[in-house]
Fold these 3 entries.
Entry 1:
Amino acid sequence: METKKEIKILIWIAVFFGVAFFLPIESARFNTAIAATFDLVKWYAREHVVLCLLPAFFIAGVISIFVSQGSVLKYFGANAKKWLAYTVAAVSGTILAVCSCTILPLFSSIHKRGAGLGPAIAFLYSGPAINILAIILTARILGFEMGVARTVGAVSFSVIIGVAMSIIYRKEEKIKKEQQMNIVPEPEKRPMWQTSFHFFTLILILVFANWGAPSNGDTSSTWYFIWHLKWYITGFFGLFLAYSLIYILKIKWQWVLYAVLATALSALLATTFIENPKLSPLVPMIVGIAALSIITLFDKNDEDNKGWTISTWEFAKQILPLLAVGVVTAGFLLGSTHDGQAIAGVIPNEWISALVGGNSVFSNLFASVVGAFMYFATLTEVPILQGLIASGMGKGPALALLLAGPSLSLPNMLVIRGIMGTQKTVVYVTLVVVMATVSGLIYGSLF
């Protein structure tokens, strides 16, 4: 009998028994936190996984399979021109309406393809931080100066943090640079415009499928008009994707036609039999993703098409379990806030509001830390902050949370750790928190 193994088993049994024995089910706070956990998990599964994460995995697969290593190294590699690499990385968020979790497969993909640490980190931060929808919403609801401060802060943060990471780990970057000098890029299998067309078609599907309703209820705005028609727009770009599958990826047109018909039929049935307008779009999205997976997996014309879906699956296997752990933990500790409702976690929301008033170093630091661990879906940080400001939150801590929150979350940190290790993750998170705190102090003193 292995003594160490049996002792470990005994310890786990004792721990489980202790947790069960002292489980505080009589505590209202505990029961509310459990309810918040399940509420956040359910909401995340309905609102985020199918519409946001799954398309993001396929986009990451495109980078991994169809975008050559030479292209990644040209724009993001250790030997790339720094001004070009950081510029592309810093502004990338303006076209990506993504959250701190959706950016992860994209970051993982360019990181594996050999992107320099600095530009890759700049891309990781900027993706969720400066998407154009969030900037507009911030300016409209929280004030023009807050929108400008968020834009300037996010763009500068991405570059400064990326540069700082590359300097801190300059020895590793030097080795990577020397290794990449010996890499002879393979010739492109297809013109770059074709790969770009396929890539940006998927990006546009992701953006419009997740286009949120205007929070102020203005039915005359362009924002509302686009939201009202978003599924027609998404379907329109779905036809672009069908074109790309046939003429760029060379998949049999009959297969693509079957996939389009199955998706269209599922959309018709969903809108007919499912009354909940939030659930009905999930059906054609799931059918479309399943159909896309099948026709690419069984395609015989190009192994890259099969490799695309396999790569997508690899990203899903790596990231989804860690996200699940993070969402459950965040829901239990910090509660669930979405769709105008708030369910408190173990840590009361009143404590948070009380601790982020004024413009002290502590209030800004606390807002940065709490924001870093909380999970914000795309655009939800604005109405949450609107409520916190109404409860007495200072403008400085509000900006600090805006700069730290959307780009980080507990699920995000767990996945980043799996991609680049504990030490780099700790350094990255620390840089974000410190810079957000300093920015909040400066902003709070000015306004």
Entry 2:
Amino acid sequence: MNTTALIMYLVANITVIGITAYFFMKVLRTPAKDHDVDDDGYPDPHGPKTFDAT
């Protein structure tokens, strides 16, 4: 492998690894969303949904 090909190979690999690491760390550092859970009306005030056709 000549020098130009080696440099191009390394630049491409370092770029892809850098972008992947950036987004991976971005996902890890993003805080979780707060979910408002309302169990009083679960799943429906009129009772559970059933699909009984009889």
Entry 3:
Amino acid sequence: MSTPAEIRAQAAILLMQVVDEGRSLDALLENRSDAPQERGLLRSLSYGSVRWYWRLLAVLTKLCSQPPEDLQPEVRALALVGLYQLLHTDIAAHAAVAETVEAARALKLNRATGLLNAILRRCQRESEKLTVGVDEDPSQRFAHPRWLVTHLHHDWPTKAESILQANNEHPPFWLRVNTRHHTRDAYRELLMGQGLQSTVSEYAPEAVLLPQAVEVFSLPGFKEGWVSVQDAAAQLAAHLLSVEPEQRVLDACAAPGGKTCHVLEMQPALKEMVALDVSGERMKRVRGNLKRIDMEATLIVGSAADPEAWWDGVPFERILLDVPCSATGVIRRHPDIKVLRRDEDITHFSLRQADMLRRMWPLLAPGGRLVYASCSALRAENADVISAFLDSQNDARDITAEVLARFGSPQLSMGEPNLPGEKQVGWAIPAGTESMDGFYYACLQKKTN
């Protein structure tokens, strides 16, 4: 068992690895074997410190006599973890200060204990004055990089601040009920039998929301495939795809396989379900998820940007293209995105997305439907990609509005035009809408002549 100080030391090392080494926090935590009693605190401190990194850094700048970047990385990270406890948790202030200072000794940074103690105790005394000054800057108040705040205000003129706020909330725990086994209401009764309250989504017919996350194997029938964990916004993909019996369907960029499984749960009588992903390692997760729900698909390790290497020439009636993106719509689940992403990454993503879309289009049968999906919040990766494609592709038509009209659910925002009279394409869902992640969908139909 690690001591409270050692857990704080570990959280600081994780923060340093994200900020200074550009590593994924999810990946860093994935294979750890921490005791259950300490896992919760470690995850809370590491995710929280990353989530509020930009605000904490601004506070540290005011508290420190030298620029924070001049501090030893481990010392800077410990200071930020300590500030997170004081400013964003209900941990007793004396414990936060004492254990964080002790964490420096655990990391053999004895000479830094005096500095850390002074920084944290001053924050404890002057927190109100410090945060008022810091929070005058929206970038610091919402703990987002300035470039991203600028993009969000440009792309979402009336919703930017609500998106920024949603990005800092604890991620909701959505389930997808496999209606091949139970109706949604019947599964909610099973949850109730275990003392688990739940609510439902107005938009995703199989979605159930629990007030807090639980161990998945404690869920009724999880091993048997009765239920899966998937955000309600991601569950909309299978409905927008609207597959029919005897169709050939491609899920491009399929890993970890949630959308592939959902399509098969909704329509098991397909001619063929093909799941494609460039990563053989990630394809193992697709295979595992299919096995759990007792369904089959054709699995292909290959790139959506290079169909010549794997496509057999037989067209698909439906294609789901869930493109690699900046993931700026799912920041509340992956707060390290705020630290790892750079402004210049967006152009790289948008060029890659446009190339994938162009290369996937010939695989679609005439009259077929391609659903472009992205968990980015930015127009450059969403509506701009689709608009440019429609301008260049005469046999493509945006039918998103028509599909939504037949969807049978209340309309969500279609996004916000930047200019008066600008035509909107696709369906943009801002993060936090009905407790959903930020997502973008465009339903494109290939003309028959």
